[in-house]
């Protein structure tokens, strides 16, 4: 797809995120908005999928390790056609299949239930290793938050992925610099991220996480790497696309009220028409 097409889809996805979280009255807009461009490139341009067969054995896999950013994943899956966009407004409501964290048993297109931070990379390792053992060509992608790197299990999994030479595994690190209590540096400094993954035996690529062309090129480059996993360190903006949410830690887990919803939607609509 062209850059313009991907950017237009990303704006629609962001509108859906704002709409569903405001409707629910709870959720995590900041970190959902920051990963939209990464997810859009994956699901609309790069991943090998069968939308009408979400459990197709040879599909590429995706794990949202930072499971609280579920609205971002749900919005992309809906736009891609896995389920109706109208269902997004049932987010976090009683008996809805779209709960606060992804559920692989209930939601078409979700490959792993997530929510407890730090576990997604381990699950991705298992899928990638299974693909190797079964001589499958599918690739495994996992989205990790930069604050999530404070979890020790991430580094055990990073060591494991390198040990087993999982070159069919690509990890995105959403580097928006903020977590629930403040900046990553204030809470528990995770830098230097690129050096750490390199020291653990990974191929490391650093990109602008809002540039579709850079994202696509990094995904393609990762496919050429042999005998080691790839970490794509994506510099992003928390709350990307909504001016009053950008780089504001308070929007990590706060829902917009109706006036804020109207303001955010108006901004995004102007971007869509630009």
From TrEMBL:
Show the GO MF annotations. metal ion binding; transferase activity
Keywords of the record, alphabetical order, are: Metal-binding, Thiamine pyrophosphate, Transferase
Q: In this entry, which stretches build a coiled coil?
A: none
Query: Domain Transketolase N-terminal, which positions?
Result: 9-263
Q: Which residues form the signal peptide?
A: none
Superkingdom of source: Bacteria
Cofactor requirement: thiamine diphosphate
CDD domains given for it?
TPP_TK
Similarity comment text for this entry: Belongs to the transketolase family.
Protein's name in the database: Transketolase signature 1
